[in-house]
Amino acid sequence: MRVLFGAALLSAVATLTNAQDTTIETAQGAVTLAGQPEKVVVLDLGVLDIFNTLDIPVAGVAGGPKPDYLADYGNAPISQLGSFFEPDIEKINALSPDLVIVAGRSRAKLQEVARVAPAIDMTVESTDLVGSLERNMTELGKLFGKEDRAAEAMAALDARFAEMREKTAQEGTALVLITTGGRMSTHGAQGRFAVIFNEMGFAPAIENVKAGTHGQPISNEYILETNPDWLFVVDRDAAIGRDGQPARQMLDNPLVHKTTAWTEGQVVFLDPADWYLVGAAGPTALDRALTQISTALAD
């Protein structure tokens, strides 16, 4: 009886421990959750990248295109729950998750999702991408008992950023473009690809760029006038699988050919899945982005 009682007591203590509340920092402040969630829905690819890196199970995700390293999350038994902009609330409710995580494209649906399940917002700030990612890695690592793995992954990224800044110190100016539907716009140090300037260390070719999701519309004449040393290009149509004029074709013209970036072979067509779908907001996407740009610098 004494042994049985001891075992029962240990079991009860374990149950109480597992049920302890955990407070984590989110994009909208501190949130307290009851215990460690077992069934989780993730409605953001950057957060899904974190779950994949930390080996945390996921029950459901938003449908749509995904980078190759997250492709398995598009298949059964993982539930496909609408889109990022329009998650299927009925399906989420039927799944009865312990936690739903929104971010980025899905963050506007936080209150709607929260009516059917506990929900948190883990959106990153584009002007502090690495800091936001570190918060997400640290807090989700704490919530799911993956603190050591999260810290190790962030330490590796921090080291890579330090190396990158040493390389970019003398590399001159950069202009970042996104193309879609035969049009293009640029994003600066306050825009969605600000990590290239703020954390990787490239100097902006122009200082006052209209901030916002869609950036500042520009032309080939504008690119020539700006004349960046480096040109980084994201092809949105390629990212979402839509037919359209490829970015390489758009920029292969006499005006762009006159720029320093083109003549020096310093036009980099960034991986569209890492940069547009994930927004470079996950550890794998960001590591791949660093590798691609480091390789370009070394050539």
From TrEMBL:
Keywords: Ion transport, Iron, Iron transport, Signal, Transport. Residues 39-299 form the Fe/B12 periplasmic-binding domain. Residues 1-19 form the signal peptide. It holds the Pfam family Peripla_BP_2. Gene3D superfamilies: Nitrogenase molybdenum iron protein domain (3.40.50.1980). Its main location: other. SUPFAM superfamilies: Helical backbone' metal receptor. It comes from the Bacteria. It is found in: Cell envelope. One of its GO terms (cellular component) is outer membrane-bounded periplasmic space. GO terms for biological process: iron coordination entity transport. InterPro entries: ABC_transptr_periplasmic_BD, Bact_iron-sidero_bind, FatB. Belongs to the bacterial solute-binding protein 8 family. This is Iron complex transport system substrate-binding protein.
